[in-house]
Specification:
disordered C terminus; two-stranded antiparallel sheet; alpha/beta; about 25% helix; 3 helices; about 180 residues
Length: about 180
């Protein structure tokens, strides 16, 4: 038997095989960036993978980089992700969430107040941006974060991870910023 189809212990998660589905930006969330039945079906169809890593999921309203990308910062979004994970688990699958903040790789139309994207420095990305209407445009110059804002963003991510972990086994909040 090929090693690809042999079990693997990955931290606390026992994988039935070594096939790991990489995160892909799907842009299929509904109103309010809430995962929908379409998201649940998409991930459930792939439940035979050893592990699914979700698409990048925004930790706050300011963290979005793509239109219709899901978030994990409202009760409705958490409920939507619960439907997704329940669907994957019902088919015997395992799923973990990739959380993040898109920083400079965003567009002002995706931000609640219409302001420029934020980043550690005011250096524009080298890739085009997508607007909330799915239009590809030249990237904007981000606003440089001040030293007080960066820990707030890190804290927001940690909070979302801890909140989500209460509902989902197999997720991990470990990393260089976790305590």
């Amino acid at each position: 038997m090929s090693a690809l189809f042999t079990p693997l212990q990955l931290g606390a998660i026992k994988l039935p095989n070594r096939i790991i589905m990489a995160p892909l930006t799907r842009m299929r969330a509904g109103a309010g960036n809430v995962p929908t039945a379409l998201n649940a079906n998409y991930y459930a169809q792939r439940a035979s993978a050893g592990l699914i890593i979700s698409e990048g999921t925004a930790i706050s309203a300011d963290a979005h980089g793509y239109p219709n990308a899901p978030g994990i910062y409202t009760a409705e979004q958490i409920a939507g992700w619960s439907v997704v994970t329940d669907s994957v688990h019902a088919r015997g699958g395992r799923i973990v969430m990739q959380i993040g903040h898109n920083g400079r790789n965003s567009h002002s139309s995706l931000r609640p107040d219409g302001s420029a994207p934020v980043a550690p420095s005011a250096i524009p990305p080298t890739i085009p941006a997508l607007t909330s209407e799915f239009q590809q445009v030249k990237s904007e110059i981000p606003r440089s974060l001040d030293s007080v804002e960066i820990p707030r963003i890190v804290h927001s991510g940690r909070l979302r991870c801890m909140r989500w972990r209460q509902d989902l086994t197999g997720s991990s909040c470990r990393g260089p910023t976790a305590t």
